[in-house]
Amino acid sequence: MIDLFIIPLLKIAIVLNATLVGVTYMVLLERKVIAWAQSRLGPMRVGPHGILQPVADALKLMIKEDITPVRVDRWVFTAAPIISMVPALIVYAVIPFGPEVTLFGRQVTLYITDINVGLLYVVSVASVGVYGIILAGYASNSKYPLLASLRASAQLISYEVAVTLTLVSVILVAGTLSMVGIVRAQEEAGVWFAFIQPLAFGIFFIGGLAETNRAPFDLPEAEQELTGGFHTEYSGMRFALFFLAEYANVIVVSSVATTLFLGGWLRPFPSVDALAFLDIVPSWTWFLLKSFVFLYVFVWIRATLPRYRYDQLMRLGWKVLIPLAIVNLVVTGFIRLMVL
Amino acid sequence: MGEAIAFYTIAAFVLGFAVMVVSTKDTVHSVLFLVLDFLAVAALYVLLGAEFLAAIQVLVYAGGIVVLYLFVVMLVNLKGFPEENRDPHRRTKLGLGLAAAVVVELGAILAYDYARPVPQLADAAIPVVGNTEEVGWLLYTSYLIPFEIASMLLLVAMIGAIVLAKREL
Questions:
Q1: What is the CATH number of the domain that holds B20?
Q2: Would you place residue A306 in the very low, low, confident or very high pLDDT band (cuts 50, 70, 90)?
Q3: ipTM for this model
Q4: Closest partner residue to B58 among A76, A124, A130, by Cβ?
Q5: Which residue out of A82, A124, A147, A182 would a mutagenesis test of the B interface target, given it has the greatest number of B Cβ atoms within 10 Å?
Q6: Which of the four, A144, A336, B18, B40, has the lowest number of CB atoms within 10 Å?
Q7: Which of A132, A130, A138 is nearest to A157 (CA)?
Q8: Helix A53-63 and helix A7-37: axis angle, to 10°?
């Protein structure tokens, strides 16, 4: 009873809440880091150094008037923010934050579930997320959101190909689709897959930037051209859902990249015995630390790089990343065949 | 018992969404019901213990192909039906004939299924364990030729699409 229902429900509650709090603080991190990059202070008023700013933001968004413009497709208009938020949250079901630990005399796994098609689950759920953007643009019955959503979905579909191909080469190296299995494979190999698959790592990271509509690929939200993006007609909490979904997706990409390429919960240099004293640090701390590095780099890139032009974006995706990913896959498969 | 309840619930959803797909007036809504239908079918696969198939169903059909449908439907801007299609009774006979054909076909499949002995699946011959591995093993051994023919077909379709789209290559 306890193992079947209460513990999984507890884990789901903790992960969902931690994710949502993490998402709101990701917004604060972004504002702060960009402010520092531009020699500003960023939010300073709410709480010491603006630490309570996310609370104020959340309150503001919740009590704002939620406007549904006339002549929108009412059902689809309401469903679109939900459709973009839900996939971003349910991906966390297979993210391994740590191995088994003993808590209060009970063996508890630090992941919600470990299905044998974990990585495929992540990819397929992420592919459903694109509907939120397409439908928001369509249902708004307005030109700019429609253009933005077409851009966004073309971008997502293009980069999904490259990202999925890099995942295949990771699967080839790990020999399993299970997220926990992939971390275990890195433990056995004694090396993070980022060192075995550096090209795949690079392509995954760039593709991840594009798939989450982050700078320098944030064309779907290019204010100068589109007056805001696919969520132009949204206000209040429904806009907030899109906003949160975007940051939740950023955290998802960071967590998946950590799991696949940076050894998940493993400490740095898992094969070097001289560093065994690092095992004092709980495994999940390593996971969060590595994910945080990714989040920081995402913000750092946004503060540094200018936006790509649309044709440059497509050329990079189709003529550089996808061929590179295919070459990487073929070479990986060939080496794998030779070694075994 | 629990499995039966789950199966009939999901099956009811599959059929309900399928009816909505063909009966909804708005084409975009119809495509959206198709997505829900595919997701419900994926749930059926999970119930059967075919997780790999379920994930692929969501990835390829719900997340890939229907997105393209949606693009087409959104971009061609359907403004109501053509005049001759307005009359709902016009094609009733054709519909009845097709429905009867489907019923006969289903009956034939069921009868065939009851008539022949239960096939001994080549479970013992598969030297790998795990859902994904078994599917891969069967695809690359017993069903290699159909698999390769299907991939050739897709390749031909892709080249055809490129030739049609870009005439001055």
A1: 1.20.120.1200
A2: confident
A3: 0.82
A4: A124
A5: A124
A6: A336
A7: A130
A8: 110
